[in-house]
C-alpha cells in the first residue's frame, strides 16, 4: 500500500484511540492488516535484485508519495496543535501516522541495498513478513481502493 493511505488510516485510528501510546501498537499492526487489502504500489510486481526499485519513475513516484504523506501528517498536526489548540491530539495523530508507516520504513534497508540489511537477521525476517503481507491488485483497482480508504479516513479526521 502507498504511504499516503497508511498515513490517513493511521491518523484516523489514532484519532479514535485518543492516545499516542495506544495508537502506536494498534497502527503498527494495522499496517499489516491494510497491506492485506488488495492494493497497488510502486513496487508491485518487482523484485529488488536488479535495483529497479531505486531507479527511474518508481523512485520519483515513491519520493512524491513520501512527500505527500509527510505533508498530510504535518497538516493535521498543525491543524490540531495551532488551529484547534490541542497539542496532545496533534501528537496522537502524528503518532498514528508514524507507526502506521514504520513497517515500510523498516523495509527500506532492503529496498535501498543498505549494508545493515545484510547484517541483520531481524530485518531479513521482517522484510519477508512484509512481502508475505501484501495482497496486490491491478493498478486501477488497487489505487481506487486506496483512494476510497484515504477519503473515508480524511472524512473521519475532519468530521
Automatic annotation (TrEMBL):
Transmembrane segment boundaries: 12-34, 59-78, 140-158
Keywords: Membrane, Transmembrane, Transmembrane helix
Top-rank taxon, per record: Bacteria
Keyword Transmembrane: yes
Protein name: DUF3307 domain-containing protein
Source lineage: Bacteria, Katanobacteria
